[in-house]
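So, could you explain the following?
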Amino acid sequence: MQLVKPVGREAASRKYDLLSALMAFALAGDKHRQRQVLRLMALITTRYNWKRDELSMGQEEIARLWSVDPRTVKREMAKLRAQGWLVTKRQGARGRVSLYGLDLERMMEDTRPVWPRIGADFEERIAAPPERAGGASNVVPLRAVAPPVADGSLWARVQAALHGEDAAAYGAWFGPLQEVGVEEACLVLAAPSRFHASYVQTHLAARLLAAVRRLEPAIRDVRVEG
């Protein structure tokens, strides 16, 4: 998968690809997701340093940009960190504002389900293999996703199946889920954030339930809590 890199011949187009993916991802969701992604895009387009992977902006400045109060900024930034999109590089202290980076790879992986809505040309371009050695390359390979630990439990077996089907989707969405238990034929899972739970429940529930029922037909439903 082609990912954004701040330098190189196609850097500008890759930045637009990221913003296109974020816009499509927002439009496919509810008003809460749309507002959250719009706020992040405002930070990216106004203050993000692509070359250094740095976003340095005080809460009061962000509040003015977003037209909200500082408490909303604190809450929204925490959500973005929980999603893995925003990474703290230096915690603010003694008058210094926090310094953040963006996990561009995670953002592209999380938006993958909406790529077809942008168009076949977009999918083909993003999925293009890296250029051969010796040529100018501006791609970053995907991180290897470790398979789940096999402990014999139902969820571990389901995770192994999901990892085998699509390691990238597993790493982005299914891997972080933890089993809570089974309640009245419903497998209950815990997600690292409310957004994560909502996304899985909205977009991946059918796929998740199918994987569970292939291994344990007695399970009739799956619930993801955040």
Notes: Residues 4 and 13 are 9 Å apart (CA to CA). The first strand starts at residue 55 and ends at 56. Residues 154-225 form a domain with the GMP Synthetase; Chain A, domain 3 fold (CATH 3.30.300.180).
